[in-house]
Design goal:
This protein has about 325 residues and is an alpha+beta fold. The protein is built from 5 helices and 10 strands, in the order H-H-H-H-E-E-E-E-E-E-E-E-E-E-H. It folds into 2 domains: about 110 residues, no CATH class; about 150 residues, Glucose Permease (Domain IIA), CATH 2.70.70.10. The structure holds zinc ion. Zinc ion binds next to loops.
Length: about 325
Amino acid sequence: MTQNGQTYSTATRTHAAQALTREVVGATFRLRTYRLLRKILVGFILVSIANVLFSYFFYTPKMYRINRDNRELVIKYRILQDRIRTAQRRVDEIRHRDNYVYRSLFSTDTLSVPGVWQPYPDTKYASMAQDDYSSLMVPTWRQLDALARTIYLESVSLDELQLLSKNKEKLSAAVPAIWPIDRSALHNNYIGAFNPRRMHPIYHRIIAHKGIDLGCDRGTEVYATGDATVLKTDMGQARRGYGQQILLDHEFGYQTRYAHLSRILVQPGEKVVRGQVIGLTGNTGGSTAPHLHYEVIHKGTPVNPVHYFNRNMSAEEYDKLMEEMRETNFETL
Ligand SMILES: [Zn+2]
């Protein structure tokens, strides 16, 4: 029994020892696994922190690429701006030549399209305002829009010139270019000046004098100053306004007016040629003495008729004329 017991006891002890050993080994294994997991976890956290810190202070390769691309984009934008500036300069040169060479050949004014120089409102560029590079993009778009406006204006202008050159002979016959009465008929060389800012002698306020006044006898012949169509004739009112008047349409934007007449010798719609007698001077309407009030209107704006006489005047004659010009005292208009 003892033997058996001992045997049993030994066997039991051995069994217990084995169980204990397994337990110890198992615990050790779990502990190792746990430590390993902890190491991995700590390692992972450390790497993450290092990564965040690194990307905070240094560029990651991807960031580096994006940054480099952005820098290249900025440079390309600046090159683009430069090219637009160059194109703008070229268009400006063409415009200058148009205004000072071509247009002066046809004695026509600089073309203006209303609103063409008005920059677009900021709202047009609102979609770009939130962009990081808006300070680069918005001015570039503005430059491009300005260029487009100039090109548009220039194309309209050149179309007009093309038409003028086709009709050059017709134009030179139509432009008002001679004196509307014989110069020898002028009284004491009296010419009342064109003055858009005239202070009226009776009304004491600024009322434009839209033409020139040529002092002469009643009944002096009045000439059409260029080929034209009679736009209207008007008997006018007594003691005020233009009195009896003729308005001619010369095309190419020119009209001429002859006022205070004593007789009208043409009908509306009639074609007249330069130098043709169209009426006789008088003292009708708001006029204080016989004279011819003569206007040249270009595209709706009265211009100084004297500038249209220089075709048959020398430079000295022109200067003398400008000196002699005085404030008109012929009209109560
Ligand atoms: Zn007048």
